[in-house]
Amino acid sequence: MNPTDSVLAVGKGTLAAVAEEDRRYNDRVKFTTPIRIRRQNSSRDEEVGTMIDLARDGLFFAARFHDYPLGAELRLYILATGAEWTCEVVRTELLPNGSLGIGVRIIL
Asked: pTM, whole model, 2 decimals?
């Protein structure tokens, strides 16, 4: 039995749909802080966004600009700590305030 079968066996409707969509392997921790965002191999200026949550292998942040396609490589700098990572965009969603929510997987 694969994981999807077990989810469908446990519940139906909304529970199964949510479980199928959520493919995270690690818990997320709320960690709201400013970040600097730069696309790899791009001449566009950096943008300041807001990190919303953090996990061991990825993070989710909000940005004003909406041009972060799936698969794009980004360089993220955490302004408060000086940490920086290369990440790959794996998910985007329009947030209620008009910003773009971006989920990334940390590469380095």
From this structure: 0.73
